[in-house]
Amino acid sequence: MVLAQLGGSIARALARMKDATVVDEKVLADCLNEISRALLQADVRFETVRDVKANIKTIVNLDALAAGTDKRRIIQKNAGSREAGLHPSKGKPSVVMFVGLQGSGKTTTCTKYADYYRRKGFNPALVCADTFRAGAFDQLKQNASKAKIPFYGSYIESDPVKIAVEGVDRFRKEKCDLIIVDTSGRHKQEAALFEEMRQVSEATKPNLVIFVMDGSIGQAAFDQAQAFKQSASVGAVIVTKMDGHAKGGGALSAVAATRSPVIFIGTGEHIPDFEVFDVKPFVSRLLGMGDLSGLMDKIQDVMPADELVPKLTEGAFTLRLLYEMFQNLQNMGPLGQLFSMIPGLSSQFIEKGKEKEGQAKIKRYMTIMDSMTQKELDNTNPKLMNESRINRIARGSGRLVKEVVDMLEEHKRIAKMWSKLPINNIRRPNNRDSLKPLVNALPPNMLNQLGGLNGLQNMMKQMGSQKR
Ligand SMILES: Nc1nc2c(ncn2[C@@H]2O[C@H](COP(=O)(O)OP(=O)(O)OP(=O)(O)O)[C@@H](O)[C@H]2O)c(=O)[nH]1
């Protein structure tokens, strides 16, 4: 079963229960059986499914509860509680502790995480409780200063618990609402590391423990994530180094198998190389990998190959080409999924819940392009768009100069991405064979999680059907 379908199956099971007039033993048992089936089909281990079922049963005491609606709410709450507490809430002070093996990217990720929330309006701070590695404090200090985030640490103090407590206390007093504690990494899963983590955790009482894991280790991630989950009550996982590592998919599915939610992924060495992890865009991206067959399949819908290939081989990715693509996109209805398929289109178009804004932006871009001359639309000379042309386009379209410049920048970015695509691979891949290169590119565990070849095909269909 496709991972993305799991949520749907559970939601349907709960909805059916909602329709029942009375929630009794039988309705509850049916609902739980349905949820169990969905989990098992999603390759969740039998033992886990059994535990989930038992937990829900213990929590939902049918006799003690009077009204049916309350029971539903409680079951819903418990079935969905995995998501609770994974993200800090603004204005409510949270302590988040980072754990992981040495070199996993923990220190870098602490800063990325702090910066992400700073941009969301939080007031974060960093505490370096890594006294094991010489230079860890300097690294955190350097990163934190670059991102303009307050930090706390010591060159001389060797007790990580003491530093962690001092740092957390200080930033609590300074009214920081997100205090991030970076702990020591070790070469392997040593008992001493876990003991140190336990002590830091006990002293700082974190609201969330995040395990940072190197995605390049692939499926070996399962044992590591499991060990950390058990020893450090890990609440969430961040998988790093997802850039350029074919094994990243295996790591993600292995982590999923430990039932630890992955909340972010690291996609590079720099602070902005950090993305919220969500299964759907991730799968979309996966489909864009391999020999790009999945992506090319989607592009067929936006612009048929027989039209696109001659235009692209002729030369550059012109504004006119972009305009035509937007036009096709607009004719297709709600398109959150498809946006993610257009290489280069910035993530703001595909962010969950922001599809409407994405559509509005496309409309705005098209209005701007409507005020361009034929020459400008077909232009391949980067110097053509001078100030006077930009001013004229802005006036003509009733838009700000800045908006015209933004649009031209976006076009430049997209054109750059397109120049890197293997255009000759564009074909009509609608049969199973066309999925083979993609299947071969996926780690086996990941493919299992996606429901094998059939699951992959269904998912492509599912994504295709969302166009209408
Ligand atoms: N390509 C890539 N490199 C990354 C990513 N995240 C971190 N790195 C690099 O990985 C290396 C190790 O990162 P650190 O942040 O020092 O790792 P650490 O886990 O804090 O290490 P210890 O403090 O020794 O435990 C550095 O060179 C980082 O630049 C990522 O998402 N992609």
Automatic annotation (TrEMBL):
Residue ranges of the SRP54-type proteins GTP-binding domain?
261-274
Gene Ontology molecular function: 7S RNA binding; endoplasmic reticulum signal peptide binding; GTP binding; GTPase activity
Whether Endoplasmic reticulum counts among this entry's keywords is yes
Subcellular location, record wording:
Cytoplasm; Endoplasmic reticulum
Any Gene Ontology CC annotation:
cytosol
- Which InterPro entries did the record assign? AAA+_ATPase, P-loop_NTPase, Signal_recog_part_SRP54_M_sf, Signal_recog_particl_SRP54_hlx, Signal_recog_particle_SRP54_M, SRP/SRP_N, SRP54, SRP54_euk
Q: Which Gene Ontology BP terms does the record give?
A: SRP-dependent cotranslational protein targeting to membrane, translocation
Top-level division of the source organism's lineage: Eukaryota
- Cite a single Pfam family from the UniProt record: SRP_SPB
- Keywords carried by this UniProt record: Cytoplasm, Endoplasmic reticulum, GTP-binding, Hydrolase, Nucleotide-binding, Ribonucleoprotein, RNA-binding, Signal recognition particle
Its recorded reaction(s) are:
GTP + H2O = GDP + phosphate + H(+)
Q: What subunit structure does UniProt give? A: Component of a signal recognition particle (SRP) complex that consists of a 7SL RNA molecule of 300 nucleotides and six protein subunits: SRP72, SRP68, SRP54, SRP19, SRP14 and SRP9.
Protein family according to the UniProt entry: Belongs to the GTP-binding SRP family. SRP54 subfamily.
PANTHER family xrefs? SIGNAL RECOGNITION PARTICLE 54 KDA PROTEIN, SIGNAL RECOGNITION PARTICLE 54K PROTEIN SRP54
Sum up the protein's function in the record's words: Component of the signal recognition particle (SRP) complex, a ribonucleoprotein complex that mediates the cotranslational targeting of secretory and membrane proteins to the endoplasmic reticulum (ER). As part of the SRP complex, associates with the SRP receptor (SR) component SRPRA to target secretory proteins to the endoplasmic reticulum membrane. Binds to the signal sequence of presecretory proteins when they emerge from the ribosomes. Displays basal GTPase activity, and stimulates reciprocal GTPase activation of the SR subunit SRPRA.
Domain comment text? The M domain binds the 7SL RNA in presence of SRP19 and binds the signal sequence of presecretory proteins.
Name by which UniProt lists this protein: Signal recognition particle 54 kDa protein
Provenance organism? Panicum miliaceum
